[in-house]
Amino acid sequence: MGEFALLSFMIFFPAFGALLLLLVKKLTATTDGDSASEERIAYMSGILISAATFVLSLIALAFFNADNSSFQLVEDIHWFGGTLQDDGSVTGGIRYKLGIDGMSLLLVILTTFLTPLCFLASWGNIKKRVTEYVAAFLILETLMLGVFCALDLVVFYVFFEAGLIPMFIIIGIWGGAERVYAAFKFFLYTLLGSLFLLVALIVMFLQVGTTDIEVLQTYEFSRNLQIWLWLAFFASFAVKLPMWPVHTWLPDAHVQAPTAGSVILAGVLLKMGGYGFLRFSLPMFPDASLFFQPFVFALSVIAIVYASLVAFRQTDMKKLIAYSSVAHMGFVTLGIFSFTDIGIQGAIFQMISHGVISGALFLIVGVVYDRMHTREIAFYGGLVGKMPIYATIFMLFTMANVGLPGTSGFVGEILTMAGSFQANTLAAAGAALGVIFSAIYMLTLYRRTVFGVMTNEKLDGIKDLTRNEIIIFTPLIIATIVLGVFPSLIFDITETSVANIMAFAAGQIGS
């Protein structure tokens, strides 16, 4: 077991808190329904539980040795199948196995970092069935953490699929007018893609006799089998990322989800697709990954250019940022399948950076939506006169989203393009075109909403950011600038993980 079963405690602590919160509500329920006191207790509980989980992730960081190339804090309990050894141990089979490397550790910290901010942003805005809302987010946090810590394919699949349920509920109950349609579309798209992953999982277990990820990474699958398994994994991760053309569920889900739901969806859930490519596709199926490299590059460039053009034509602020996420995830897949150290490092950095920046942008949209109850770009204009603090923060994250040097957005984009340039100059050129388009649609959005003369009389009474909102944005601002100026904070942690991915791929290609 890892140090004090730290990972298990961290993973299941939010879910335990959610169940305790629901139990307390059931025991103290009255006929009056939701009250101010219940709302306060629910949000305070959610903040404290998620903040404690964040502290646990920092403890995991303290125990983590960046120079150690193996998985750390490993917890390994045999569940089913396998071979009994002379010493009484069991090898193979299905196991409850957890562990982290640099890549998964950073995604764990990103998850625990964003969740408390989601509760702060929801306080005062979500007032219906608040206890259930907080519980759904806490359970979702448990399932997201499980995805990044799982070292058994079955355990990974369970966490990966179960995460659909609380997000489906969050969108379907607390979303906008078309929330039911968006929730079902999100659920069906991602579930259908993951069915192929389930089939691949069974085939791999029958082939190798275990679902241990560490063992599967060193097993040499035949080239033909790699191709079919790669396609099955790709079907699942491409939808989750999402890649063009299976991205259509994302704008609907973002527009209908509550603000905090959009933050988690863009900040964490989309990263599961990129994480899956890095954890499974490259090290387990390197021949197939190299074979399909031109195909992935083509889809990535189309996603970057197409989503940028579509974003430019949007009239809804939230939908524009949703399409921006599709474009930015195209840089992630470019970097991953470049098969270069610099490209993969850039892809991981881009996932972390995008999680922070996109989360902040959705919160920025949420600020004006909570005041005016509309996200239509044409409704706004001249906000700088009434909301100077808001305009300043909006400008910072606009610049970060277009990749301004000195922000974290620049580092991920430049490294993924450098890696893809080594593999395919045309793909890098297409990505560079997307950077230009990104600047166009984001600066146009900023100009139309913040600058100019305020002509809409309904905006006369709009207020600038509250103290609570400034508190929410402060850690996001710090993270964006610090990572932009000191990217080595990320690279020092992910260096050995990237080296392992490259070593597994290089060791199996052509074998």
TrEMBL record:
It is found in: Endomembrane system; Membrane. The chain crosses the membrane at residues 6-24, 45-64, 103-123, 130-148, 154-174, 186-207, 227-246, 258-278, 290-313, 320-339, 351-369, 389-406, 426-446, 470-490. Residues 92-145 form the NADH:ubiquinone oxidoreductase chain 4 N-terminal domain. The keyword Transmembrane helix applies. It comes from the Bacteria. Residues 150-432 form the NADH:quinone oxidoreductase/Mrp antiporter transmembrane domain. Its EC number is 1.6.5.9. It holds the Pfam family Oxidored_q5_N. Keywords: Membrane, NAD, Oxidoreductase, Translocase, Transmembrane, Transmembrane helix. It is an enzyme of class 1 (oxidoreductase). It is a multi-pass membrane protein. The keyword Oxidoreductase applies. One of its GO terms (molecular function) is NADH dehydrogenase (quinone) (non-electrogenic) activity. InterPro entries: NADH4_N, NADH_Q_OxRdtase_chainM/4, NADH_UbQ_OxRdtase, ND/Mrp_TM. Belongs to the complex I subunit 4 family. NCBIfam families: NDH_I_M, PRK05846.1-3. This is NADH-quinone oxidoreductase subunit M. It comes from Ponticaulis profundi.
